[in-house]
Structures
1.
Amino acid sequence: MIAMAVLEILTVPDPRLKEVCEPVETVDDALRAFMDDMVETMYDADGIGLAAIQVGDLRRVVVMDLSDERDSPRHFVNPVVTPLTEEMLPYSEGCLSIPSVYDEVERPAKVRVDYLDYKGNPVSEEAEGLYAVCIQHEVDHLNGVLFIDYLSRLKRERAVKKVQKLVKARGEAA
Ligand code: NI
């Protein structure tokens, strides 16, 4: 049993969250160990998705678990999403990098997802519902885009201030 590690999650307005991530060249044991740590970090933070950039790593890697049992982690290396419909699905989104903030974002209701899995095998599948919402949110992260970027400037600034206060309060409590 290899010990997994919980990594630190960056929060807004950390400028590293605005970077554009680089494609992964090889899915190897080192990358798998990193993805295991990402999954552990996601579970520890009670999230359903996490992009590598959120732990300060600029590779195009995403992990996700949409199961109620929290026992079905999924891994996406170099994920690409392509909208398959003009129908938009509104969903109240949250983000581990923007804790305590939730707001509605509209995204295409159905997308194709192309990626390499945990073993490095290419996968192409269709996503709908929460899966479609989540994978589009995570791929946005890889391009330096946050869900609050879709909100008004006023709402975005309020969100950042709220997170800064929360992070400061956490620091004082620790
Ligand atoms: Ni997020």
2.
Amino acid sequence: MADELVLIVEDNEKNRKLVRDVLRYNKYRTVETASAEEGLRLALEQRPDLILMDFQLPGMNGIEALARLRARPETRAIPVIAVTASAMTEEHQQIVAAGFDAMQTKPIRVREFMQVVRDTLARRKGRPE
Ligand code: MN
């Protein structure tokens, strides 16, 4: 448990800081970026154990970024949690259909968020790489 590397892809600086602080407090290592393009590069380079992907990003959005991660053997098995500011059902359906491993709605509630992180990492353990 913990010590795992989490890649945070989030363009909102306050949200990025909150997620980073919560994860580090819980002994996870983090790497972060504000863009999906840079996120894809970091995913390949650092092979994180988990990716938190903001749904709405400048340029490439979270769904496109997920598709690109899943298209490459090196990053295909990394679990990805979608983080969305929207409570809109339509967007939630898009997220589920896209194949994200889990979803978190902003504003982040710390206990619930950490539970989703732990559950998603735990599920990955049983999965072949
Ligand atoms: Mn955003």
